[in-house]
Amino acid sequence: MFPFRRPRHTDTGPRAAACEFGQNARVLFFRMNTWTLIAVLVAMIGGSSAIGVFAGRRLRSRSDSLQGPLGVVQGTLLGLVGLLLAFGLTMAVGRYDERRALVVQEADDIGTAYLRAQTLDEPARSTSLALFKQYADAAVRLSHEPTGTSAFDAARAELARIQQQLWTSAGQALRVDPTGNASRLYVEALNPVFDVHTDRVSSLRNLVPTPVLLLEILGSAVALAVLALYLSMIGRGLTTTVVAAAIVLFILFVSFDLDRPERGYIRVPSTPLEDTRELMDLPPAVAAPSRAQA
Predict the structure, then answer these.
(1) How distant, in Å, are the alpha carbons of 120, 122, 187 from that of 281?
(2) 158-176 tens-digit pLDDT
């Protein structure tokens, strides 16, 4: 359904400040650039591992009494962290797949509505075809802008404006030919265009909760610290600790990056929308209907 909005009231008091703080905390890792995120993960995981190695070397003389209990603890922690990392990665992959599917669905719906607009009578036909080209351009721009930025909001505002114009044009087509199949089929194709856009914007804002991400980082840091402590106490080398830390770092980074569709290395492609926009540059497949045909 076409999204009509109410005017928003501005609140500059403590409540607004608290809401802004909560919003920033909710998207803490999403707002980081890639290198900052890598630095934070390396500092947390690498630092905890280094602390574990240092503590293990200091406690090596007491390894006989602590080795058994510590081995049980580190094994349990590694198992729990493995489940936690798998859970977080599953959440991120699910959101990524949903965003990709919605891009394809939006491209399909725009293409269908554009083809049906070619069957309308003038002037609604020419107006709608021109508006759909602008709409596709704005949809592609939206795909390239990070959520929450001014450029993202500007693209959304432009799409909302074009949606209003498309709906106005559709209403005019219905008034000119209220019983014709072309106008009714066009309106039926136009509603899914608006609905899938709303779904797509919601999916871009549907991030893995920050507490879950923090739990992944802190749980991994503690587990690796205990693993490094245990290995150092029994006199093992650093190779196992470094390899384990590298694997955990890679899993964490992929999980976080999947949830940053316009900021990270793993991005949701806008190719379906771009292909649909290129098809609009071709001559219309259906000629403008004449009044005699109508």
Answers:
(1) 18, 19, 23
(2) 999 999 999 999 888 888 8
